[in-house]
Amino acid sequence: MIQWQNLDTLEAYKKLQSLKNLVSVKEELSGSQGAQRVKNYSVPMAAGLTYNYAAKEVNPQVLAILQELADEAQVTEKFQELYNGAVINTGENRKVLHHLLRGQLGNDVLFEEKNERDFYKAQIDAIADFAHKVHKREICNAAGEPFTAVVQIGIGGSDLGPRAMYLALEQWARTNNCLKMKAAFISNVDPDDGATVIANTDLAHTLFILVSKSGTTQETLANELFVKDYIKKAGLNPACHMVAVTSETSPLANNPEYLASFYIDDFIGGRYSSTSAVGGAVLSLAFGPEVFKDFLAGAHEADITAKEKTITHNPSLLDALIGLYERNIQGYPTTAILPYSQALSRLPAHLQQADMESNGKHVNCRGEKVDYVTGPIIFGEPGTNGQHSFYQLLHQGTDIVPLQFIGFKNNQNGNDIVVDGSTSQKKLCANLAAQIVAFACGKRDDNPNKNFTGGRPSSLIYGEQLTPKTLGALLAHFENKIMFQGFLWNLNSFDQEGVQLGKLLTKQVLAHKTEGALKEFSDIFEI
Amino acid sequence: MIQWQNLDTLEAYKKLQSLKNLVSVKEELSGSQGAQRVKNYSVPMAAGLTYNYAAKEVNPQVLAILQELADEAQVTEKFQELYNGAVINTGENRKVLHHLLRGQLGNDVLFEEKNERDFYKAQIDAIADFAHKVHKREICNAAGEPFTAVVQIGIGGSDLGPRAMYLALEQWARTNNCLKMKAAFISNVDPDDGATVIANTDLAHTLFILVSKSGTTQETLANELFVKDYIKKAGLNPACHMVAVTSETSPLANNPEYLASFYIDDFIGGRYSSTSAVGGAVLSLAFGPEVFKDFLAGAHEADITAKEKTITHNPSLLDALIGLYERNIQGYPTTAILPYSQALSRLPAHLQQADMESNGKHVNCRGEKVDYVTGPIIFGEPGTNGQHSFYQLLHQGTDIVPLQFIGFKNNQNGNDIVVDGSTSQKKLCANLAAQIVAFACGKRDDNPNKNFTGGRPSSLIYGEQLTPKTLGALLAHFENKIMFQGFLWNLNSFDQEGVQLGKLLTKQVLAHKTEGALKEFSDIFEI
């Protein structure tokens, strides 16, 4: 029987509290024993990736209690409940089924007699068919000319994840001769966003993908009409240039204004929708459906490892537990995501949503206030760029920021150049290796301004190359990490009530039904 | 006589510590008195901007002590020392002269008989002359064809600021018919960064700007050769396609491999170089030198307001003091930058460097360890995008994050569309107004999951439109805010010793002179 208990009621959590500041990564990683630790504190992930936590503030004692915590909190049992179709999103009375988008992990999940896995698979197949026809020029514009570019209109989960995934694979696809259509994205209700994208778009040869699960997203509907206005002014018919991704119950569904429509349902949260039709349409059109299938395969492989009860066999769970230890025991309020891969430039922005919108909560899954801190602030930029920016504070600031490094042995484009005896890719990796040790071990200097105290923990996810499959595994790793942390904090990680008040007040402002400070701020902008 | 004293030795700071949690923004901003507070807590900035701090946790009592603190810490006197040429960057024995890039604030500043203002102005004039010639097609490629695009190669301050400023004005320039050359940027040593930019570049008609003050930046030199390789393979002569921005003592100076060279010197820190030749070359080529001059004029106007001793006449100082109160008294470790303008999409990344690299320090300007927290973590994304991402945590998470909103009455592109009775621009502004009040005042609900406690402080910078002049004022506002906070924390905000250890260890890795953990991490990547 599954118990949904607050973190601070668990026996293992009480034990964990006595283990604050137990491990010095500086001591553990310095000297000759450091090499052995790097070898030992390493766990295989899906798709050939590896999770290394040698530079984290853990040791066998901490890890044993973290295993106890995972067991006591029944996190893998909760995951099983989730993928078997329980209503985990209690606040909205919804199942949570994004794992089914990429494979079957447990029982068939039915909703109103619909087999959910079959439904999701049928959508991906329909997208594949559509994308093939576009690529084979069976679907063309009204003049019979091919579509050469795709622009996604969506915001939040309909933007950040798909955009990050597109950027992650654009150069890989170029190298592998499967960049079939370049993609761009319009998200912000600021009309300058759409105008800038349109200024760089060949409208006659562009397919637009309108993405809104509810079909009522203010920004997306405004941007749809903004774009349609340009399409019409160019003498084109918007219905020949736009497809929709939405739910079957939305006003956008089955609408002749769209060339085609693809569907998700209420059990796919926006921030978990990159592997659904929301990411599937743009990625299949850009790179081909086969690439999207490899991406799903990588994600599914990571989902399977997330079923393991033993934390050293389950890197998502291990990562989640170490993050919880850092947040609730060590008291670190932020985490930085630092991919040493320019292709992952927007992964931190996607994870910022995935993590902060899922676990930035102060009530548990029963709606009761909790008495411990939950989700941290997530931020980050790719390395080496960040080294020339905010790393100063990470190395020598007054606060400690846990770090998540990501790196690959090989880059995506075939070209590189040797300067001073090394390629750029080797320089990139050398910087990454150096940073881990610099943060952990520091360096004594009699001049305090040049002294590095070290003791700044990090973990490293690494692999051979960022490909569709490793990208899928990477994405699912973080999705599952966030899910496990939500279970440990006893949160509902799948609603987002915190966004509602702003929407309500915005409506009041636009209806001119305001008073007090809100009226005054509205008047500033002459709304 | 100026005293460089630690924050915790100041009398006013001791008084401030007794004022923790004194002001409830929820109470102050709710009800009918809220409107008056919005009117009262407002200060004019340069270039027609306004700083509103009605939703900050201050009242006349707190503000009075903050004024005492500013006076006791002699921050405007220190600013005067700085712009009159004192060696404020003590660790590197350097003056700090970025204010001179945009105007004369005090005495003439001489260095080795060179008038620094004249030197900086001569560089801007040389850039203007060069840009005019490129625009008039007097400077062309070897085939006599015009240059139509510009690509900046640089990292850190040679990338983030110029890139953020370019993006801030691209749509404005398009609307005002002065987008003369589109710009792109290569920064990361990851060869996929350069490869992706080059794949989208018409090499024959592109000017590259190589930017490195020292002329020794590893990433930038590797990227220079990476790009030159492509240029040569295209049958072109790199010397006809590349200009340099560097210091006169660098290996890049006076080098016939460049079509032209423009100079800065050691008194311009990378993160403060957007108004120097580092930003000037790319912005003058992209938009015309007149636009860059307006940008400088806005920055200079903001610098002049920063001379005011009275904090309500000096918005940069007021902003700095409130930030310090939030960091050191209220105990908030992070700050979010939230521009409601897609054009400012990379301003948060630039301010992340400007702030965290300047004030992420644990030693004072004499190199002694301080016993209080210094610079916060800075992060952010444009609104309304962020609303659909991490705002859930900002509204309902367990930690409080102070917020810096930025917004404009009018957008940059001429087009907009009315949907449901309002334009997209009005929707954008309505969302901004609504968020300020939602964060501050919250909303009671018997369901704790739908309850918003409020009490989440924010400030607002607003104006008519984001233009070259308002952008300059905005940039200088933040530069001066960071400077004042550095004075208050008694830091040297102008060095960055925290980046050195990583560089050293990277060299060891590339030279295969490693052992222990560093060797192990190097082996992972087969370096």
TrEMBL record, chains A, B:
Its main location: cytoplasm. GO terms for cellular component: cytosol. The keyword Transmembrane helix does not apply. Its EC number is 5.3.1.9. GO terms for molecular function: carbohydrate derivative binding; glucose-6-phosphate isomerase activity; monosaccharide binding. It is an enzyme of class 5 (isomerase). The keyword Ligase does not apply. It is found in: Cytoplasm. InterPro entries: G6P_Isomerase, Phosphoglucose_isomerase_CS, SIS_dom_sf, SIS_PGI_1, SIS_PGI_2. Pathway: Carbohydrate degradation; glycolysis; D-glyceraldehyde 3-phosphate and glycerone phosphate from D-glucose: step 2/4; Carbohydrate biosynthesis; gluconeogenesis. It comes from the Bacteria. Keywords: Cytoplasm, Gluconeogenesis, Glycolysis, Isomerase. The active site is at E357 (proton donor), H388, K503. One of its GO terms (biological process) is glycolytic process. It catalyses: alpha-D-glucose 6-phosphate = beta-D-fructose 6-phosphate. It holds the Pfam family PGI. Belongs to the GPI family. Catalyzes the reversible isomerization of glucose-6-phosphate to fructose-6-phosphate. This is Glucose-6-phosphate isomerase. It comes from Candidatus Treponema excrementipullorum.
